[in-house]
Amino acid sequence: MTKSAAELRRAARDHILAPRLETPFHDRLMALSEVNDWYNWAGYKAPHSLFDSELEYFAIRSTAALFDISPMVKYRITGADAERYLNRLTLRDVRKLGVNRVHYTAWCDDHGHVLDDGTLFRLGDQEFRLCCQERHLPWLLDSAIGFSVDIREETEEIAGLALQGPTSHAVLRDAGFIGTEKLKPFDIATFPHEDGAVTISRTGFTGDLGYELFVPRAKALSLWDRLWTAGREHTIRAIGYGALNQTRIEAGFIVANGDFVTAEGSLRAHRVRMPDEIGLDWLVDPDKPNFNGRRAILDARRNQTLKHILVGLEIEGNIPAEHALVYHRQKHEAGLVTAAIWSPTAKRNIAIASLERPYGSKFTEDLWVEIYAMRELKYQKMMKRAKIVPRPFVKLARRTLTPPGLK
Fold first, then answer.
1. pTM above 0.90, yes or no
2. Residue 11 above 80 pLDDT?
């Protein structure tokens, strides 16, 4: 029977009734949530905060913090040509990535515009896990034509936790993960958990000592409970994205579709960015075999046609300048602040900004930001001086100390 126009319209609206997916750790997070502050992360219900973003931030920097990274998109890439395929796809030379090692990388379209950034885990000679912000399966499959490689998304079947902070290794030690003290930054190792295994890497998004743990979904809650029990004496806290975001800004890390617009997500042609325009020039290895976007990236360098630059800013005052316009000599619009906070650790007002060249490259002095602060139900416009400073804004020795300090 043919449906009426009203029934068709109603069916088209039914998508709003579909609930967000729940991560494998959702029950534990719900039990700890005091503020019911959730957001959508890749279709999953994820906490922006569980009790207080400020206190959650200090858990990362002072003790140990547990963050659910299960919604992070994860692809398993295997096959006889897995290394050669990923070397063709990404900017860095995958041949230099050893087994049981991780590296940060990015990948571009044929025009040299960044599609996404992420971490590549080498789990075996021809076995990899690619973790990223956005979903790219059609692009990955199209790029695999001609390669003997198998690509599948494993986001739902693999649960992930980020354990970050100065006492994070002490938590792992007391949880019985013996041998984690030998892990150097970007190392991977496998450890027994119940009747299976958990993969632990010394990685993170906070610029602090930290680890990421991956386990099959069925073992997720038992892993959480194992860490939580061991972490009680080390003041472990569960955190949301608000606190994590503060620390990633201090570390100078960038976020796709936050600090730059991905090539697939951009609706306007001039909003896309090349690696050199978002501070990822160091990822590009021009000496390796051909990779997506190579010619366009090298041509832009040679012809000096790069249009943007990503910089760190220190801004006078203590009011965060998030999404503020940046000016040169208070006259010429130079760019936009993409992320900003008052840093409790650095005791500075810091920001990441995307500027239009030659601002930030040739013209680096006399920069200002236009901040609007709410004062008694009225916005007050403030022009504050800004200077370009190196990233990271906060650099902690414990992040790379091996073996890590035990507290």
1. yes
2. no
